[in-house]
Specification:
By secondary structure, this protein is mostly helical. It has helices at residues 2-19, 32-41, 51-54, 74-85, 97-102, 106-118, 128-133, 141-150, 159-162, 181-193, 207-213, 217-228.
Length: 257
């Protein structure tokens, strides 16, 4: 396992080495006021308000399958919008993101993400109890925690690339902790499909496609169940960010087991 994690770490560093320089300009902050206007009101007839699907606080919605945007990694979000705009990633949730991204200039995309980065919404994922009552198949959080932190037979731990509780470990790796359950599960399915048209194939070096290919439906449900309620740190973890970092408000997800 030690050697497996080392190999994953080397691959991650290599991936970052050729992706980050190519997108260096994308990491510059944009115009937050213009980003707020687009997020809240949209842009003409071509681009609807981002809040209409992702919520005013950028929390996403399980019933629409939309992701949480607040607290996400800036460079990762830039890459996703760019990939939508160039059809390297096809929106397999509601089919809207490709048109939205194409309707924004590169500067406007940066502006929107700069505004999203400013959101101080609670670090709160899905209410699994409510989802289960609505008939959604919900995984086992305890087993999911084991896979996320330590991996399983044939499955590399999520922590290897995404950090403790999926809080992100680098610019190309998104924050998974606190993400919406339905979105997490949908994306794991898309990675497993691995095609541009029906799945997802915009991962560096095909890393996520390789991981998802080894996961069963239960593995995916368990991992998503744990990550949606995973907090960025636990008490007693000296390497964790301090309370309040990036505007986190820690709340119990309630009934998430």
């Amino acid at each position: 396992m030690r050697y497996l994690k080392s190999a994953v770490g080397v691959a991650a560093v290599f991936a970052m080495s050729f992706i980050i320089p190519a997108q260096a300009e994308s990491f510059q902050a944009g115009d937050i006021d213009n980003g707020r206007k687009i997020f809240m009101e949209g842009k003409g007839d071509a681009v609807p308000a981002c809040q209409s699907c992702h919520g005013a606080g950028g929390l996403g919605q399980d019933d629409m399958g939309t992701p949480r945007l607040a607290h996400q990694v800036f460079a990762y979000e830039i890459k996703q919008l760019t990939d939508f705009a160039t059809d390297k990633r096809i929106d397999n949730t509601m089919g809207a993101m490709n048109g939205v991204a194409k309707g924004l200039t590169p500067q406007e995309r940066r502006d929107v993400i700069t505004y999203v980065e400013s959101l101080k919404t609670p670090f709160l994922g899905s209410d699994l109890k409510s989802l289960k009552e609505d008939g959604v198949d919900v995984g086992d959080r305890s087993r999911g925690a084991m896979i996320v932190e330590y991996g399983a037979e044939g499955i590399v731990s999520c922590k290897s690339c995404h950090g403790f509780h999926g809080r992100s470990a680098g610019r190309i790796f998104p924050m998974l902790g606190g993400q919406r359950y339905v979105y997490l599960l949908n994306q794991l399915h898309a990675w497993k499909d691995g095609t541009v048209d029906n799945g997802r194939a915009n991962d560096p070096m095909g890393m996520m496609r390789k991981v998802a290919a080894t996961m069963s439906e239960k593995d995916m449900q368990d991992v998503a169940a744990f990550l949606t309620g995973a907090l960025p740190y636990t008490s007693g973890n000296p390497m964790a960010p301090p309370r309040g970092a990036r505007g986190f408000e820690l709340k119990n997800t309630g009934g998430s087991h």
